[in-house]
From TrEMBL:
SUPFAM superfamilies: MFS general substrate transporter (SSF103473). The chain crosses the membrane at residues 34-54, 66-85, 91-113, 125-147, 153-175, 258-277, 289-308, 314-336, 357-389. It comes from the Archaea. Keywords: Membrane, Transmembrane, Transmembrane helix. The keyword Transmembrane applies. This is MFS transporter.
Amino acid sequence: MTLWLVATSVSYGLLMLLDPLVYTFIAYNLNVSSVHLGICNALWSIFYITSMLFLGSLADEGKARLLMVIASASMIFSWLSMLNLNTITAFISYSLHAISIAATNLALNTVVFENVDSQNWGRTLLFMRTIGYIVRGSSFIILASMNMLGVSLIQQVTILVLLVSTVLVPSFSLISERSVYRLYKLVRELSFYVKASTSILYIDKPSVAQGVFDKVWYGYSNSRISENKILASITIITCVNDYVLALLPLMIKNIINLKMLWIAYGVTSIVSIIAVLMLKDVESSSKGLALSLILVRSIILLTGINIIKDIYTLTLYLILTSTLYLVIDVTLYNMYTSSTGGYRSSLYHTLRELGSIIGSIVGGIMLAIGMNTYMGLAIMLTAFSIFLLI
């Protein structure tokens, strides 16, 4: 495995670590209200979406190294903001982290789509996720075990790894793998039109002609899901996810301390990615797999929250929900990139984050109104996300 792939995967893992690390640090140590914490989460998502929209064109142009430079610079300013710690500087630092992880995410996808054979895209992205989740999980456990409940050291290590990754990111050839894959998709689709048109040879036998056309054409079209449906589905799924989980730290703050929370996050990251690797064909883009997993996870997400009583039940709940969400995200993303030929990956990530914003805000409002209303809307949103993929 090439060095650039490992280095960029580690940098992404450290950035994934810093997301909940900084967020929970703010929640537990700066005495912020739920309103302030909600604003903090919303700012992160807004900066992430804005970064994806502005930087997405760089990814489509294959400028991975420039994206890594932007990620490194953002992380440096994020670290500097935390040196004079208060609520405002912490919010600024967290928002700058969003720019860094957005740029890194786009750069990772770019180097994969430009340097890896299209048949191995799903497997390579899964490998990068695996490295990232192991780095994230083990770092959580190490920091909590050593009572290092700060963020400055991890920020410095992340900056160093990002700079190394920037140097190691490969350059691209004029004819990209994505362009070749797109040409392949066009030729393949044209071949289905040609094959379907052979039914005209049986014009004197209408029933045979219809059978030939149906076998070729509908066999092809039924295996596809439109890009818009995939995007809408991941938006709503993520909306439901944050509808519940964004409020979780506030629910458990009085029974779970920060050290135990980080250990739970760490164990969850490692166990969830191991579970994903054990699942057959997780790198595939199966519609049936996506539908069944969305249903199972929604049941656990909405009913399992009542079992959280201590660190063990919290970890079990997080493992189940995180593992299933990870598999769903991998599956839907592979379906999307297969449909787009690797282009417009920023749109997928942007809409996923939009779902996070909506879920966090609406969840807080609905929970304030009442639990029945809160759960009712969650069920409706889940049903709609499944309907989109049918």
